[in-house]
Amino acid sequence: MTERKPPGVPFESWVDKQIRDAQARGEFAHLAGAGRPMPEVTDTTYDELWWIKRKMAREGLSVLPPALALRKEAEDALAAAYAAPSELIVRRIITDVNAKIREMMFKPPPGPPLGKKPYDVDEVVREWRERRAAIDSGGTGDAGDAGRTRSAGGAEATGAADDAAHGSHA
Predict the structure, then answer these.
(1) What is the DSSP string of 54-92?
(2) Contact 112/65 with Cβ under 8 angstroms?
(3) What is the distance between the alpha carbons of residues 131 and 145, in angstroms, rounded to a whole number?
(4) Alpha-carbon distance 167 to 170, whole Å?
(5) How far apart are CA 164 and CA 129, in angstroms?
């Protein structure tokens, strides 16, 4: 246990003496991480949950509010559907993510609103066919981008064409 700083002794020299005494006793000899560089600090502001964030980063974990996690999952599912090898797989991927989107639409989500509605499976399949045809003919697979429709909350939409493709339900 540390002793109290004696009166009249400058604080800096008292702290230095405490450190030297601890080094002499070997209290710093076997600390975790000894001899290794300090981990990089990405956030320089004080955060009392720094250790939780570091552990989550080390474990490869991330936590998003449910609506944001589903929004990301929906975008990933759409990309996976466009890259799928068969129409059956495209339909399965989109049907699965649509079920999750519908479930989120009908219960109040914690956090920000989802901002998505289910994809039109037939529209995604049509776009998938166009992309496959463009790839097969030597293109880049972006053949359907000009008329691309995703969903009401998606990043890309074409107004009336989007309403026709996805129906007018919200």
Answers:
(1) HHHHHHT-----HHHHHHHHHHHHHHHHHH-SSHHHHHH
(2) yes
(3) 9
(4) 8
(5) 19
* Cα–Cα distance measured from residue 136 to residue 47, given in angstroms and rounded to the nearest whole number: 52
- Cβ burial 27-64 (10 Å sphere, 16+ → b, else e): eeeeeeeeeeeeeeeeeeeeeeeeeeeeeeeeeeeeee
- Answer yes or no: are the C-beta atoms of 131 and 148 closer than 8 Å: no
DSSP SS3 for 170: coil
| Cα distances (angstroms) measured from residue 33 to each of 26, 39, 153 | 15, 10, 47
Digits of tens for pLDDT over the chain (170 positions)? 457 777 777 767 778 888 888 889 988 888 887 777 776 665 556 778 778 888 887 887 777 778 888 899 999 999 999 999 999 999 999 999 999 999 888 876 667 777 788 899 999 999 999 999 998 888 665 544 444 444 444 444 343 344 444 444 43
Distance CA 147, CA 134 (A): 14
